[in-house]
């Protein structure tokens, strides 16, 4: 079974609705919520199967979603106000089942669901350390090579301290968060150019680097990501 469905992308959020196909074990640099009318199955780091109608995965938690015909999937970046809220809901668990009161309203279109998720939130509000927030803002659109070192200098903080803050507050290594941003850029560019050109646009060394990174963070190749969004 392949990935094919509808995608809605916002500044710090991606929503997908459709079929979930084959994918390798991977670790997102985001909070993930998967929900469906029928129970979903997911493998954790130990290979144990976790089932539920709505599953929440913390950033950097190894997992593999088993194929299903229809689901709604939410990826939200951990530095956002919405991401911080969902990370608190997860607690210490890498993967947890969401109670019915916390589930997404699947009757809504993806754009309406996005609006509902942000209702009452001040998107500019952040609980992040100001130095980390400053570094993250700088990192958007930066070339991958040496990005973390440059961000630390820009924020007036040591590289080691910046990495520690990122792991503590984002739940994911900063280098992986940077890679996530690059994949987002390249995936968007791949809609209108070749994968090789898109890889360079995102800051990757070449298409192979882009492909390896996408499999590591999404469990899918760039080609599969594009097919998933093709409807």
From TrEMBL:
Keyword Signal: no
Coiled-coil regions listed: none
GO MF term (any one): DNA-binding transcription factor activity
Classification via InterPro entries: AraC_XylS_family_regulators, Homeodomain-like_sf, HTH_AraC
Pfam families according to UniProt: HTH_18 (PF12833)
Domain HTH araC/xylS-type: 133-228
Keyword terms of this UniProt record: DNA-binding, Transcription, Transcription regulation
PROSITE patterns: HTH_ARAC_FAMILY_2
Protein's name according to its UniProt entry: HTH araC/xylS-type domain-containing protein
Organism: Arenicella chitinivorans
């Amino acid at each position: 079974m392949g990935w094919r469905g509808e995608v809605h992308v916002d500044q710090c959020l991606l929503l997908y609705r459709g079929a979930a196909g084959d994918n390798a074990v991977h670790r997102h640099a985001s909070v993930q919520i998967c929900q469906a009318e029928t129970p979903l199955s997911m493998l954790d780091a130990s290979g144990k199967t976790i089932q539920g109608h709505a599953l929440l995965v913390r950033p950097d938690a190894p997992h593999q979603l088993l194929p299903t015909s229809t689901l709604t999937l939410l990826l939200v970046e951990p530095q956002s106000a919405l991401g911080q809220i969902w990370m608190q809901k997860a607690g210490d668990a890498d993967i947890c089942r969401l109670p019915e009161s916390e589930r997404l309203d699947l009757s809504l279109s993806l754009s309406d669901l996005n609006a509902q998720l942000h209702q009452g939130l001040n998107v500019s509000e952040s609980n992040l350390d100001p130095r980390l927030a400053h570094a993250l803002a700088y990192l958007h659109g930066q070339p991958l090579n040496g990005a973390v070192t440059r961000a630390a200098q820009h924020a007036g903080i040591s590289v080691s301290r910046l990495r520690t803050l990122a792991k503590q507050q984002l739940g994911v290594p900063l280098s992986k968060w940077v890679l996530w941003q690059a994949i987002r850029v390249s995936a968007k560019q791949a809609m209108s150019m070749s994968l090789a050109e898109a890889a360079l646009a995102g800051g990757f060394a070449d298409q192979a680097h882009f492909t390896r990174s996408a499999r590591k963070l999404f469990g899918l190749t760039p080609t599969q990501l594009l097919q998933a969004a093709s409807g």
